[in-house]
Amino acid sequence: MMKPVKLPSPTILTWLLISTCTLTIFYYSKLLPYPKPSSPTPPPCNLFTGKWVFDPTRRKPIYDDTCPFHRNAWNCLKNQRDNMGVINSWKWVPNDCELNEIDPLEFMGVMRGKRIGFVGDSLNENFVVSLLCLLRVADAGAKKWKRKGAWRGAYFPNFDVTVGYHRAVLLAKYEWQPKQSTEEDGVKGVHRVDVDIPAKDWADINGFYDVLVFNTGHWWGYDKFPKETPLAFYEGGKPIVPAPDMLDGLQIVLKNMAAYIDKEFPTTLKFWRLQSPRHFHGGDWNQNGSCLFDKPLENSELNLWFDPSNNGVNKEARVLNEFIVKALKGTDIEVLDLTHLSEFRADAHPATWLGKKDAVAVWGQDCMHWCLPGVPDTWVNILWQLVRYRIKT
After folding, report:
1. I need a labelling partner for 69 at 20 to 30 A (CA). Which of 2, 239, 272, 312 fits?
2. Can you tell me the distance from the alpha carbon of 257 to that of 215, in angstroms, rounded to the nearest whole number?
3. 254 CB contacts (<8 Å, ≥6 apart)?
């Protein structure tokens, strides 16, 4: 008669199962390391495609010309720009979801104790001024703030919220190096750009901000850096050979800065705002270009204005956007594509209402920055909806 087989106790079986699973996980983790996500999971709807709808019942702007964070040239109420009521009666309506107007109190409640930073050129400053003026509605005790290399910003004491703007027009470090003699080629000197080093204005913000919004683009032109004072690109402390031209240098900077941001801000919610389109009609800013429009462009007009194949003066935005999107692939930096919705709004720039008597004669019309209140308030609505979604998920 066969003896009954003695089975292992439940405790031993449990131990063997756990050990086997642990060894299996360890083995495969060595062979197949978990890949880093190539990009953030997209939100449930696309806020960037839609249309502008004229809505006279739309909520009126909740800040006015007395906001202490205004920059004079963009304070179109103070400068008595025509049609400000009409400009702010156009509402951006996404195709497949609803975009809500920001509630400053809700924003402050969710973001209590947090810090939001913007890094880039004056279009990001345009963006941050809108946010500052909107948030001040919730905390009139807001104090101007300039720390950690910030160009400007505010601290909202009732909610312990900080908003900062760091001016870094190329994102990468650059400095002027004069030439001893200009007799040979007319070059007065070069602006040295270290493509792998962030500008000092934001080099020390690692770990400080909970949300960051980056941009660059509007300074990458020969009107800013002509042949007499060109950009010279360096990497690892040495000149890049052969020397890149302006747009090739931009792509090298974008690649390096995207990699730096991705590595140095692992826990920060990161956005990169695509280009804000210009609306110069009849010539560029220094060729008597104008933007005295009384309504947004039609959808059928956009390609004529902005398609690079038409070689118009406003083609910059779409050209640079291609470079930016390519540089961001494989990172967890989220694209903030505000270009398309802004392309329509040829009617919403300061134009000739710049707040100074001789400004137009000296600088021409401003068809690049935006009136405030105005289009950047819609940018804030979109940013807030995305930030709130990311925080919840």
Report:
1. 272
2. 11
3. 216, 323, 324, 326, 327
